[in-house]
Design brief:
The complex is a heterodimer of chains A (194) and B (102). With 194 residues, chain A is mainly α. Chain A has one domain (5-193): Cytochrome c oxidase, subunit III, four-helix bundle (Four Helix Bundle (Hemerythrin (Met), subunit A)). Chain A contains 6 helices and no strands. In chain A, α3 packs antiparallel against α4 (88-118) and α4 runs antiparallel to α5. Chain A starts with 15 loop residues before the first helix and ends with a helix. Chain B is mainly α and 102 residues long. Chain B folds into 2 domains: 1-71; 72-102. In chain B, 79% of the residues lie in helices and 0% in strands. Chain B is built from 4 helices and no strands. In chain B, α2 runs antiparallel to α3 (43-65). The longest helix of chain B has 29 residues, at 73-101. Classes of the chains: A mainly alpha (194), B mainly alpha (102). The interface between A and B is large, with 55 and 49 residues.
Chain lengths: 194, 102
């Protein structure tokens, strides 16, 4: 049985599980900042041959996908707020909608990949192609992991595992999910708009 | 501070206005797309504006959706330190390449 928040407060005055997930996110920050940094350096030194992203990529479709991910963060926090009030059904609805939106994001991304590959834009076609598929591919893998995590939380919520006193697992999954959203916000600007 | 007090700290902080954050993110995203398609401005101004808008959106998500606004200093340090390290590495590599090429 899960311990309550109070049972896991460490010497720093923070729930040890929350501290753990923040440390994990710190490693993720370095991972994605490293990738984005590499992209910036490569682009800076190939300015003359770098294509205009909007000439290769489907900006309206990705704009829609960004909206989907932002909406998923919204449905998640509303689910979290529900369980804080003791509304288990609200949590279940929030988690379900977040899973649906996360899956929709991945579906759109797969279709975007198919269209790009069909047009000859692949991971090996150019430096931009390599950077694009590496960055969005790793992000997509994180979204997939997040959706799996959310499914676990959703199933647990159906079994009544969360209460207003014990919802730390939901909060931790939320930190990861919002981080994935945050990374996409940066990627969308760097890869698609600039 | 007792364990119970610490435990209730996260739950008792004032809940952010999630809907206001959502609409801010929505309109900022639309703003980004509009700015990216305004070709009459110099490229540098467009890039700086887009990066600024993206940073504002990222900060909104971190502060309000990830509840960073209500966290202790140690959590801020955990976030900022790796960001600083990775950004420094990128800047150093960028300048090193500039030196080599010039």
């Amino acid at each position: 049985m899960e311990q309550s928040h109070a049972g896991r407060i460490g010497c720093l005055g923070i729930d040890s599980r929350k501290l753990g997930i923040w440390l994990f996110l710190a490693s993720e920050i370095m991972f994605f900042t490293g990738l984005i940094g590499s992209y910036i350096v490569l682009r800076f030194h190939n300015l003359s041959t770098w294509p205009v992203p909007s000439s290769v990529l489907n900006i309206p479709l990705t704009g829609f996908n960004t909206f989907v991910l932002v909406c998923s963060s919204m449905t998640f926090v509303l689910g979290l707020a529900s369980i804080q009030r003791g509304d288990t059904e609200g949590l279940q609805v929030g988690m379900f909608l977040t899973i649906v939106l996360g899956t929709l994001f991945l579906t759109v991304q797969v279709n975007e990949y198919k269209a790009l590959v069909h047009d000859g834009f692949t991971i090996s076609s150019s430096i931009f192609g390599s950077c694009f598929f590496t960055l969005t591919g790793f992000h997509g893998a994180h979204v997939f992991a997040g959706v799996v995590w959310l499914i676990v939380i959703f199933v647990k919520s159906l079994r009544g595992r969360f209460t207003p006193e014990d919802y730390a697992a939901v909060e931790l999954a939320g930190l990861y999910w919002h981080f994935v959203d945050l990374v996409w916000i940066i990627l969308f600007t760097i890869l698609y708009l600039i | 501070m007792s364990e119970a007090a610490v435990a209730s700290q996260a739950a008792t902080h004032q809940s952010p206005n999630y809907k206001a954050v959502f609409w801010s993110l929505f309109f900022l995203t639309i703003g980004e797309i509009i700015v990216a398609n305004l070709h009459q401005f110099p490229k540098k101004i467009t890039v700086v504006t887009l990066v600024f808008l993206a940073v504002v959106k990222a900060v909104l998500v971190a502060l309000f959706y990830m509840h960073l606004k209500f966290e202790k200093l140690i959590i801020y340090l955990i976030v900022i330190f790796p960001l600083f390290l990775a950004a420094t590495l990128t800047i150093l590599v960028l300048f090193d390449k500039v030196r080599v090429y010039s």
